[in-house]
Write a structure and sequence with these properties.
Helix content: 25-40%
CATH class of the largest domain: Alpha Beta
Strand content: 25-35%
Strand order of the largest sheet: 16-17-18-19-21-20
Number of helices: 8
Number of domains: 4
Radius of gyration: 23 Å
Distance between the termini: 41 Å
Structural class: alpha+beta
Largest sheet: 6 strands, mixed
Number of strands: 21
Order of helices and strands: EEEEEEEEEEEHEHEHEHEHEEEHEHEEH
Length: 396
């Protein structure tokens, strides 16, 4: 499992760029805009506008100028939904910033802690796919099943956690949920509920909550933000170092982050072994082409089998999908393999590489034409779209 060990933050007048680094490799770049904060995971008290039984869905006014789209994925059916005009508590699952589409909503509210995710309207205990071992799962379930009245998801960080730590996390989650509910009772719809709670929508607080347990160091090039992060780390009892970077070298020169961002914006990237990957993003589908002269072998070396080249390309492909924040359908054109055994090995490598990706991904496998298909859930704009929009805002 990839361990995020360093967080490097470059602070701009209207945004903060947060680079999540593992062993010197850029894993994810989060762009937190002060002038246009992301609504993903925000909780709203909305007003039901229109129910569409034929689609098992509805439109909800959450007060942002574009109606949100709500599917009936977390209810037995749409027949029991409230009538138009009724208030509904919803959470943003995907925020289509800057487009014509409204955000995708869910009534299955999730309140996320360090170790647990609480679904007040859910039931049962489920686990991160990265928590392995039946004994550990049984131990965790035994400790948490009575902590919260609803559904509980044990996050990866929960592996090995003590009962006291889990109880403290559950208590903090309950406190936040109670405050959210009270706010929802006090305001008329539509209203942004989570924005009324200090820290609930703070991107830095969310990153520290998600990765603080594995971080060795947080580096920031803004002195005031460095002080604030140190205060938050002290409050949470975190052990990572907080360092203000005030030298002449840009913060993103550390770990060669700037260069890695440039690679993530390029259509074609070359791997050290000679493999080349070509990314061709489209409106609804991204094509990835794997190409390598290495399949034929270098002078004086034996030719490499296509499966070996493809397997070597897999980690870089999955890393780039996450870093570029690519969503929707993805078709990978691997070097042709004639053996079903080789195709199975490549698919197994993809499944393994995806274990570190927090974004839900559905694998469909190889098509008759030999292309590999998967779909990746949408979590807002792509990295290129975010940086392009940020550049325009900084220049205005």
């Amino acid at each position: 499992m990839t361990r995020i060990d360093r967080l490097i933050c470059h602070v701009l007048p209207r945004a903060c760029l947060m680079a999540l680094v593992a062993g010197g490799r850029l894993v994810e770049l989060q762009v937190a805009r002060r002038d246009r904060p992301s609504r993903t995971d925000a909780i709203f008290l909305g007003r039901l506008e229109r129910v569409m039984p034929e689609l098992e869905a509805a439109f909800v006014d959450i007060g942002i100028g574009r109606s949100g789209f709500l599917r009936a994925e977390d209810r037995a059916g749409i027949d029991g939904w409230p009538h138009p005009g009724a208030p509904v508590l919803v959470q943003v699952r995907s925020d289509h910033e800057g487009g014509d589409k409204g955000p995708r909503l869910s009534m299955n509210i999730a309140v996320t802690g360090r170790y647990l995710v609480y679904h007040p309207m859910g039931a049962g205990v489920t686990f991160s796919r990265r928590i392995e071992g039946e004994l550990e799962r049984e131990r965790l379930e035994r400790h948490v099943e009575r902590l919260l009245d609803g559904g509980i998801v044990l996050r990866t960080a929960a592996a090995g956690a003590t009962p006291a730590v889990l109880r403290a996390d559950a208590a903090e989650i309950v406190q936040r949920w109670d405050r959210l509910r009270r706010h929802a009772l006090d305001v008329p719809p539509p209203a942004d509920i989570s924005s009324r709670l200090p820290g609930e929508r703070d991107p830095m607080a969310r990153v520290l909550r998600d990765h603080g347990a594995t971080l060795d160091e947080v580096i920031l090039d803004d002195r005031g933000m460095a002080r604030a992060v140190q205060e938050e780390a002290d409050r949470l009892g975190e052990k990572f170092r907080v360092r203000w970077h005030g030298g002449p070298m840009p913060a993103f020169d550390i770990d060669d982050v700037a260069s890695q961002i440039g690679t993530a914006l390029a259509a074609r990237i070359a791997l050290p072994s000679g493999i080349e990957l070509l990314f061709e993003p489209g409106e609804t589908l991204t094509a990835v082409d794997v190409d390598s002269a290495e399949a034929g072998g270098r002078q004086g070396r034996a030719p490499r089998r296509p499966a070996e080249v493809n397997i070597e390309a897999v980690p870089a492909i999955i890393q780039q999908l996450r870093l570029r924040n690519i969503a929707g359908a993805v078709v990978i054109d691997f070097i042709t393999m004639r053996s079903s055994y080789d195709r199975d090995k490549v698919q197994a490598a993809l499944v393994e590489a995806l274990r570190d990706d927090p974004v839900p991904t559905q694998i469909y496998g190889f098509t008759r034409l030999g292309h590999f298909e998967l779909t990746r859930a949408r979590r807002g704009p792509t990295l290129a779209q975010q940086l392009e929009a940020l550049e325009g805002s900084e220049e205005s």
